[in-house]
Specification:
The complex is a heterodimer of chains A (about 350) and B (about 250). Chain A has about 350 residues and is mainly alpha-helical. Chain A folds into 2 domains: about 35-75; about 85-340, Orthogonal Bundle (MetI-like fold). Chain A is about 70% helix and about 0% strand. Chain A contains 13 helices and 2 strands; from the N terminus they run ααααββααααααααα. A two-stranded antiparallel sheet of chain A has the order 1-2. In chain A, a hairpin with a 4-residue loop joins β1 (about 95) and β2. The longest helix of chain A has about 35 residues, at about 310-340. Chain B has a single domain, classed as P-loop containing nucleotide triphosphate hydrolases (Rossmann fold). Chain B has a 6-stranded mixed beta sheet with strand order 6-7-8-3-9-10, sandwiched between helices. Chain B has a 4-stranded antiparallel beta sheet with strand order 2-1-4-5, with helices on one face. In chain B, α3 runs parallel beside α6. The chains are: A mainly alpha (about 350), B alpha/beta (about 250). The interface of A and B includes residues 18 and 251 of A.
Chain lengths: ~350, ~250
Amino acid sequence: MSEPSRVEVPLLNMQVAEQSRRAPAPMVAKAPAGIRRFLHTQTSGAVADRAFGGLMLTCALSILAIVVLIVVMLLDQSKLSLHAFGLKFFFRTAWDPVSGDFGALPFIYGTLVTSFLALCIAVPLALCVAIFIMEISPAFLRTPIAFLTELLAAIPSVVYGLWAIFVLVPMMRDHLGPFLAKYFGWTGLFGGSNFGEGFLTAGIILSIMILPVISSITREVMGAVPISQKEAALALGATRWEMIRMSVLRNSRIGIVGAVILGLGRALGETMAVTMVIGNNPQISHSLFAPGHTLASVIANEFTEATGDLYLSALIEIGLALFLVTIVVNSIARLLVWAVTRGKPVAAH
Amino acid sequence: MGVGIEVVDLNAWYGVTHTLKDITLNIPPNSATALIGPSGCGKSTFVRCLNRMHETNPAARATGTVKVGDRDIYRDASPVEIRRRIGMVFQRPNPFPTMSIYDNVASGLKLNGFRNRKVLDEVVERSLKQSALWEEVKDDLKKKSGASLSGGQQQRLCIARALAVDPEVLLMDEPASALDPVSTSKIEDLIFNLKNEYTIVIVTHNMQQAARVAENTGFFLMGQLVEFTSTNVIFTKPKDKRTEDYITGRFG
């Protein structure tokens, strides 16, 4: 028996002959005569191109200039305090305006702890929201839920603060706090007296504020995952969750880290709402119930009543510290991304 | 060993568009079956109905009976189960870019909770050899990502990924249409070798390809199966005038 798949295909060969028999293409009106002449009279556009490039370069450099100017201003205005305490300022725990003794450590600690808490709460929540909206929600719920999450970002910081004072603080004091102390007291994180204001309350309010940023960027990144990637997983017999893990999350992990970094940036600098609920007490305490202070909140709280040049100068140096903390934390986050993805592909094709 | 596929009165819709109309055909086991037809004729929809990928689009819907082996896939099983037994290769190579070559091939087994390293190593090697990619990638199985390969290699990687779970049926939706002629001929050789062990259904725009690899060929037109018979017959003496017009290039 002959191989059925290696048959001669006479009809296919006819295609070649067919070409010669095809009718000629129908006549189309000629292109207007002026087009070519017009194009020949045009200049190459090199000058315009160079001018455009220069303009863009100026815009880009102006960003750099602004950053440099901010640093210069901060350094100049905090001269007094820099002279008095030197670099030790960043590691001193004292904050005593009366005797003129200043240090930034409790504030740095407060900023890092509240931001870290905010990330711990907001990241899983934001991921779940994004996954739900993009992959699980029925189509008619998608837009309203996305809109509502985005609306969280539009609420002014001070309104969050007010809500926290009237709702979150009492809840923390009467319900959540005692619960945590009872069941998780052994961790040592929930000791001491609980007045409702403190690191944890600030962390919670921050987490609500950074949630929309993280979830909406995560959503965008997930939306960019090609359908072919999802089909690859589904065709292998993946369940919906397995498909989300294999295709969607894996392909968008870099973007998700970017979203988290942006959220972190907002948490580090957030001022108003934090100032209203953190308790405003410059101390380093291992208890999350303890009142604290952040770099941003102490500036907001004490700037108007800062008497004396050294006090003012120290507050501006706190601003410098906030600037540095932001840079350091962002660099570490970026390094982490780089270390995780080194030598590995980043984007879906 | 592959199993046969029996399709009875299969109808499919995308929204209100009726894309497949009363398709009935029998695909014999351990052979290659080609589906040809102009763009939009429903041949891709048809293969996607064979592993229930069709319904991953929320607007899509299908009715009728599809029996793979002796199992009615629309009644006796969940889509996830079905897709684990029926491999699929897509038009555009879609390896997982964040996974190594090894992990790409092993992904189907790992999904099913398979963790035995030694067997996994064996399966990965076997699948890559089956898809004629082993020699080219054996030195950087775990070093390189699936996306670092060339287009033709990526497609063979996808074939290896589909073969790793030892499917009963292998569906290929225009597997070579995004590839250059050299890669295309490699894929065709592959199909030619694999069809002894698997039931292969291949959608193609390339009629020479259908003639080269398939025992049977079906011609789809506007959602209907116009003719389904042995490749030899369909390309030499097609019964239907429309089939003849299509394969001689008078339309489509």
